[in-house]
Amino acid sequence: MYDDGDGPPRPGGAREARARAAEVRVAFEGMLQIRRLTGAGAADPEAVPAPWERRRMVRAVALALEAAGIAPSAVDADSGQRVATGYRVAGVPDEPGAVRVEWLGPHGSGAAAEEEGALADCARVLGRLGWDALVYRGRSRRRFVEVRPPHPGG
Q: What is the pTM of this model?
C-alpha cells in the first residue's frame, strides 16, 4: 500500500493517480483513527504515533509523506536506475527505532539542489504528526531526515 520510494514507478495516467490518492487518503485516515483509539490519554491523540506505527516506521512515515502530497522516488525494476525524484524512506541498520528519509532522483535531475527544501518539508509534515524529525548532513554532504518516535513525556 505504501510507497517507500525504492519501488518501480506507478503506471498509469490521471485516473490511476486519482485512484492512488484516494487509497492513500483512506489509509491515512485509518492511521489517524488508530491513533485516536490507542492514544486516548494524550491531549491530542492524533499527534502521537500509535504503537502500530512505531513497529512499522518505514511504512508509517512513507504513508504520512505520500498523504501530504510529497512524491516518492522510484527505481526502474530492470536497470535498477532511479527514474523519479522524491523521498525514499529506509530503516537505519544500526538503529531499529529510527528511519531515514532521503531526497533522491535520477542522475542530473537536480534532486541535490532540491534536497534542502524538500527534506525541510518532510520534517515539518512528520513533526506535525508527532515524530521527532531532524535534518542532518551526512558524510557525503547530502542531507537526510532522521525520524524517531517522540521522547517519552515530550
A: 0.92
